[in-house]
């Protein structure tokens, strides 16, 4: 027990209302002694971008974070994938099936439109705690331990804790890392990608009817490139992605896409419906662009005093492992667990130290593994290349480490919290 238990609510500011911030808010607002407020820089709480895949482990983490998570995912239009089918996309072995990952899994992978997932995560939150048009500019530590957070509009709030869920180029991360922030900033992961969401029937006609006889995620592995398609929005929409190896990342991360550029990227795939079809779908959108993938190569800490970082602010990863959102869900599970034991603002430092100790090694493991998975999925992993016989054993174990005994993990969180409190 804390010797300074308080009956006034503990004021928590979550900076950023993306999937990580919304999940955490949905988790923490249920704890009675917390006053949770969410501050989002954009004029509305909204998600850009296409779909997101949630493997069974990510769904399990969401289930530990918030009640009725299955209903939430169903309301968000999640589509269950029979497997992730990986196939060779170019060259002599084109068309050869490498593996059906997660086939017959107890919790099959789900695909969701990002905007729908965010909408459902925010749905139970009162509008009075969601503040749009609030771009955080600075955090100041006060003598009494509280924090003053100042926004671009000139307003300031006083709170007991700040949790930065403000994405890959996070301001809160800069505060937490201080002088070391530049050294540990996100940098190119070595790949780019572009995505589009198109109506189901259009995708079926363009990519080939045979790929729609069952709800599957397809990943096509070719020479230095990868094409993926899967189904979202209650089977009304299809996401199509082209990714490729990137030798040099352009300034501003943005690559303008033309037919000529994509034909060159997929030159070994042309004449096959999948290569030609993916190019058609990607180009059939306003101002098509690709983006360099960035990730965090290292992060010395996720917390400083009563400030911590979660989601992409803490551990931005390339998408190859399909695990970024699952990691944000695990962040929420650990913070929920420790905050259930926080009785006064004095306990927050220990809570954030416990969170950092548990979450940081795992976040980094996902980031590093994801980059390696990207090399395999673009046919460029050393000693593997595009050889089916070598790809199978190389890919087989890459997702196993994501499985976590969450009950045991929560116990560890409480133990670490008690240890740090006693120091
Ligand atoms: C191309 C791509 C594909 C992916 N696919 C998958 C996948 O299939 N499965 C998966 O699990 N993960 C995937 N990921 C990872 C996943 O998308 C991210 O991990 C996740 O969306 C991160 O959410 P976030 O809330 O941490 O960050 P963000 O979504 O970036 O949200 C941050 C929020 O903070 C706000 N903000 C920023 N600065 C401030 C400020 N100063 N003040 C207030 N608010 C601020 C922003 O406006 C934004 O709303 C993918 C990532 C990429 C790039």
TrEMBL record:
UniProt keyword list: FAD, Flavoprotein, Oxidoreductase
Database matches in InterPro entries: FAD-bd (IPR002938), FAD/NAD-bd_sf (IPR036188), FAD_monoxygenase (IPR051104)
Source superkingdom: Eukaryota
Domain FAD-binding per the UniProt entry, residue ranges: 131-369
Any one Gene Ontology molecular-function term assigned to this protein's record: oxidoreductase activity
Gene Ontology biological process terms from the UniProt entry: secondary metabolite biosynthetic process
Entry's family note: Belongs to the paxM FAD-dependent monooxygenase family.
Name of the protein described by the UniProt record: FAD-binding domain-containing protein
Lineage start: Eukaryota, Fungi, Dikarya, Ascomycota, Pezizomycotina
């Amino acid at each position: 027990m804390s010797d300074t238990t308080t009956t006034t609510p503990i004021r928590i500011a979550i900076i950023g209302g993306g999937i990580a911030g919304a999940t955490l808010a949905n988790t923490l607002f249920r704890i009675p002694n917390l006053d949770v407020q969410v501050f989002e820089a954009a004029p509305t709480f909204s998600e850009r971008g296409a779909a997101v895949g949630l493997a069974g482990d990510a769904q399990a983490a969401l289930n530990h974070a918030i009640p009725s998570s299955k209903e939430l995912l169903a309301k968000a239009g999640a589509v269950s994938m029979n497997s992730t089918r990986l196939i060779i996309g170019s060259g002599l072995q084109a068309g050869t099936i490498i593996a059906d990952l997660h086939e017959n899994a107890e919790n099959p992978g789900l695909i969701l439109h990002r905007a729908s997932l965010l909408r459902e995560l925010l749905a139970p939150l009162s509008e009075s705690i969601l503040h749009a048009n609030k771009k955080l500019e600075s955090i100041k530590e006060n003598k009494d331990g509280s924090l003053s957070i100042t926004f671009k509009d000139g307003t300031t709030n006083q709170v007991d804790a700040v949790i930065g869920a403000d994405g890959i180029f996070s301001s809160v991360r800069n505060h937490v890392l201080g002088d070391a922030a530049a050294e540990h900033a996100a940098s190119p992961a070595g790949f780019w990608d572009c995505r589009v969401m198109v109506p189901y029937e259009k995708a079926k006609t363009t990519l080939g009817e045979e790929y729609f006889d069952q709800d599957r995620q397809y990943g096509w592995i070719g020479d230095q490139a990868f094409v993926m398609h899967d189904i979202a929005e209650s089977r009304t929409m299809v996401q199509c992605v082209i990714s490729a190896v990137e030798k040099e990342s352009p300034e501003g991360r943005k690559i303008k896409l033309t037919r000529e550029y994509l034909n060159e990227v997929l030159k070994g795939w042309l004449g096959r419906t999948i290569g030609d079809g993916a190019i058609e779908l990607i180009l059939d959108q306003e101002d098509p662009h690709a983006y360099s993938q960035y990730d965090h190569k290292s992060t010395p800490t996720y917390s400083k005093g009563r400030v911590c970082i979660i989601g992409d602010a803490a551990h931005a990863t390339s998408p190859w492992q399909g695990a970024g959102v699952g990691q944000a869900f695990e962040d929420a599970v650990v913070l929920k667990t420790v905050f259930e034991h926080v009785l006064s603002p004095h306990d927050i430092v220990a809570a954030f130290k416990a969170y950092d100790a548990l979450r940081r090694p795992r976040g980094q493991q996902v980031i590093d593994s994801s980059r390696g998975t990207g090399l395999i999925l673009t046919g460029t992993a050393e000693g593997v290349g595009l050889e089916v016989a070598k790809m199978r054993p190389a890919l087989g174990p890459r997702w196993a480490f994501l499985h976590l005994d969450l009950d045991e993990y929560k116990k560890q969180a409480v133990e670490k919290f008690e240890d740090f409190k006693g120091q």
